[in-house]
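Before relying on records like the one below, remember that each one covers exactly one chain. Contacts with other chains, cofactors or solvent are not represented anywhere in the record.
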Amino acid sequence: MKKIILRVSAILISITVLLLFTNCKTEISDENPKEEAISSINLGAKVEEDKDIVVEESELEDTEKENKIPYANDFTLLDLDKNEVSLSDLQGKIVVLNFWATWCPPCRDEIPDFMEVNNLYKDKNVQIIGVSIDTDMKALEDFVEEFGINYPTWIDGTIDKISPIWGVRAIPTTFILTENGEVIYRNVGRMTKEQLIKILEEVL
């Protein structure tokens, strides 16, 4: 009888130890999901940080747009190829704006000098634009081709009528503009190559 009791006791002890061992394994395996959960939280935090960076970059772009200086004295005309062209297209360049006409003798006299200056300064952030007030387009086209004018010719009155707005009462009249379209020089009458170069050197 005693032997039976001892065997039963031994069996019960074995069962108890087995159960305890099984519970321990369950608790250890429970730790893994906790670690995975912590990892997920950390990853989530990184994603939120990246979102913050994107927002900051977007805010910087908006600030740059707000700080961009608007172009002054803008207008739109047609060129000889009937393309719409705006003065603001030249933002960032020093612009020499020359009002002229084919029937104007001093205008015709100064064109060779303007062409020479254009060759000298076209790669130095300077753009010469001739604004013709001619109404005879055929005569204008023939003149430009004959003289071989090497800078763009825009035609006043094709979209905007700008000569009255700019106060042009005699031709030739030449304006020099900053990179943002502000007038810094005005000359009424013929300009020589030497005059134009002197002013451009002061501006650049």
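Residues 1-68 form one domain.
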